[in-house]
Amino acid sequence: MAYVDGFIVPVPKANLEAYKEMARVGAEVWMEHGALSYVECIGDDIPYGEVTSFPRAVQASGDETVIFSWITYENRERRDEICAKVMADPRLAGDEWKQVFDGKRMIYGGFQAFLTR
C-alpha cells in the first residue's frame, strides 16, 4: 500500500503567491526524486470551529489561510529514500523559503494507507 506525508500549513494571504512558487518548486523536486504524486490545496471552506478546525490546529490568524497538502510514495522505505534526496536538493535550501510561512505552526506526519480507490 502507498505511504502518504500530510501537511497543514498557515500561510499569510500576502505570501500566497510566494507559497505557490515554493510549492511548484517542491512538486518538481519531489516528483523528480520519485514521489508518486504531490498535491497542494488552498483552504476554501474552512470555518473556525468552536473546539477544533483546520485554522485552530495551526493557530491561523485572520490574515492567513490554511494550506492542506500531501505527497504519496510507494511505501515508507521509498519515502525515506526520496526525502533524504529532497532535503539535500539545493533548490529547496534557500533562506527565502523560510520567510513564506511560520514552520513552527505546520502540522505534518507520515501515514500508512489502508484503503485507496
Automatic annotation (TrEMBL):
Highest taxon in the source lineage: Bacteria
InterPro entries hit by this protein: Dimeric_a/b-barrel, DUF1428
Protein name in the entry: RNA signal recognition particle 4.5S RNA
Species, as recorded: Pseudorhizobium endolithicum
